[in-house]
Amino acid sequence: MTTGVSSISGLRRPSKFRVPELCGDLDLDALGRSGPLAAGLANVRYWLSYEQASLQPLLLQTPSPLMEIGTAVALQFSEDVSGALTEEALEAARQTWLPDLSEAAAEPVGRILDIWTRCLEARKQRPRYNQAGFRSVPATSGISLKDLEAIGHADIRVDLEGDGPRLRAALGTMLAARARDAKGRPLPNIEVEHPMGAEILLRKNGETGDTEMVFWIPGPYRIRVPSRATGDRTVVAG
Fewer CB under 10 Å: which end of the chain, C or N? Predict the structure, then answer.
């Protein structure tokens, strides 16, 4: 994860982070100053600078340029009375924006629109997970006293393929995580961290002891044991 300011000139990002696994190195400034997408992004500058409180919170919890593209879709195409992002708005953006872009630009922009579509599809599954005992809670987003006092290592396993520190997961998919100490003893109290405190779904499995989780907002999620200084895993959901 890299931090900084928005790729739109002069706009300071509220979330200040990018996730290359989701959006690559798309530079919104490189899309030009003319055309329907450029016009939409020009409007985004104003709203993110002066009218953030009027935007759907979901949009502000995602990395750049997902946030800017999603906001442009909502402002330009959404017919929802609250200005929320909708599947119909995303499809209208595909039909209007992509034919006007070069192939090099259309591919990453189309990929971002697809991520937003999967996000809305995953959001529809929340009631089903709630009925199954999952709680909707915000991920942690700051450093606590426990973090400063943490020592030792946690061996955290997540039901995903891959051995690296950053794993990939599909939005709306249930994941199970478990943690053990250096002697193989179970560690309780797994936490999930997100830079903007995005809403997640959590449930403790009483039979296996696993912490089960569902991510429906695109972005990076750090799975960790607060009392352990090392061993955390990051899941990039998209």
Answer: N
